[in-house]
Amino acid sequence: MHTSTLHTVTGPLSYEAVRGPVLAHEHLVLDLDLKGDGGAVLDAERHGPAVTAELADLREKFDLSLVIDLTCRGMGRDPRALAAVAREAGVAVVAATGWYYEPFHTPELASMSVEELAGSLVREIEGGFDADGIRPGVLGEVGSHGDVPSAPETRSLRAAARAAVATSLSVATHAQLGRGGLAQLELLTAEGLPAHRVSIGHQDLLDDPAVHKELAGRGAYVAFDTVGKESYQSDDTRLRLLLALLEAGHADRALLSCDISRHGYLVSEGGQGYGHLFRSFLPRLRAAGVDDDLIDLMTRRNPLRFLTGASTEEI
């Protein structure tokens, strides 16, 4: 089952209206500041104007049309701030629900059953975050760490899968440093969620082309979503891994993004910014022989198919 309508923070949007590229995994507002150093923060008031300016610039220069913001419960999510950024930048934004990986879990993960957790997600998806009526359009970034999810992470993943099945949404995961993606996919599909409604996150941090090919072969999307984060992985390695996936015939399963998750990554603070994908990485892909149709597939059609559940022939 699929839908032609995307739930954005400013209202329903037909996928046919998305004519330019999509950033498949970003954060426009968040707070992951466990250390108390203020680094892993994108504050709506302090950093919102810089975020808005970057997105508006990317819309003007690269026709950026949609951002999937995967900031969920426990990550400092702020749907109203996302709506303000979307309106001011002129770029559609999809907001998320679910739970990140265990260090950021909210109390209900310890006290509620999988069924209760799923019900909580369904109510938010169908009823909206609050009285404003803003609705999530995706579940993510539902997280785990290590090769096998912990018990609370397993409950979170299973609840997300059940909510996705009930509401016809898709699930994007956080696989810490790229690990555990196959275990995540097993858990999600065991709950009845089709693999093509799943994106396994941070696979560009895992230097294992065999895993990428297996995930894609099973029908899941493989997210190369930390492009430009050189302290985690070089873009040289990302390029090699992505080209291997394309050469294996899985271009229709690749998603690309930058996962901006600290204010220091913003262009205004000397960082690579949300536009690193367009300014640096895509030109390198083109230089390696990837044509514009494949670029459009990975940066527009694939994320739209992921969000809607549509097939290759439909988008």
Automatic annotation (TrEMBL):
Gene3D superfamilies: Metal-dependent hydrolases (3.20.20.140). The keyword Oxidoreductase does not apply. Keywords: Hydrolase, Metal-binding. InterPro entries: Metal_Hydrolase, Phosphotriesterase. It comes from the Bacteria. Pfam families: PTE. Belongs to the metallo-dependent hydrolases superfamily. Phosphotriesterase family. This is Phosphotriesterase. It comes from Streptomyces kunmingensis.
